[in-house]
Amino acid sequence: MIKVMFFAHLREQIGTGEIEINSFKGTVKELKEYLQINHSLNNLDSIMTAVNEEFCHDETMVDEGDIIALIPPVSGG
Amino acid sequence: MIFEIIKEPISIESVVSKVVQREAGAITTFIGTVRELTNGKRTLYLEYEAYISMAVKKLEQIGQEISERWPGTKTAITHRIGRLGITDIAVVIATSTPHRAESYEANRYAIERIKEIVPIWKKEHWEDGEKWIGDQLGTKEYLEGKPGEEDLDD
Hints:
Number of domains of chain A: 1
Radius of gyration of chain B: 16 Å
Number of helices of chain B: 4
CATH superfamily of chain B: Molybdopterin biosynthesis MoaE subunit
Number of strands of chain A: 7
CATH architecture of chain B: Alpha-Beta Complex
Number of domains of chain B: 1
CATH class of chain B: Alpha Beta
CATH topology of chain B: Aldehyde Oxidoreductase, domain 3
Distance between the termini of chain A: 34 Å
Shape of chain B: elongated
Structural class of chain B: alpha+beta
Oligomer: heterodimer
CATH superfamily of chain A: Beta-grasp domain
Helix content of chain B: 25-40%
Strand content of chain A: 25-35%
Strand order of the largest sheet of chain A: 2-1-7-4-5
Number of strands of chain B: 9
Structural class of chain A: alpha+beta
């Protein structure tokens, strides 16, 4: 099982801050495609990703137990 | 906690006190406040949201980067989240250094880095709508959904 977290407009779009997905195997890029298809999210191209609280690339493999966060362009400060 | 995300109003004094050191000849404090007008549009209030655990880590990373670039610098950062009204303080950054020039430089560096790598978002609420704001700098392109190498490795 993996946990996927959503923030800002993505959280509002999907209606929850996090979901769990059973037996996902693949890369971050594939996870994004999965989310677009199964959770009707729009284009995720401008969305960064963090695995276990560190920024990662689209090619990063997602492992069992990972916490993945979709990170829209930040606007703190 | 030297790097914090909090929901209550920020005490400027408490952030500044965290960087007091005998070696310092200067403390620079940046206070980020909520502005009413942006490009002629009137903001009623802002809502800040954060991925708190990661945001704290990234603030710590910024502190680390500053220590490497300007040795001897002490940095403290507190960012507030939740609903903030016009003129409320959203972020306080304090940097102390032996001499004043580095103090300003290090402090400026901290706020620019916050706008690049710290997972905090703001939503502007206007009379006629609302919007999550992203990529304020307008300088970043995440074409493959990732930050640049410099963001990943340092």
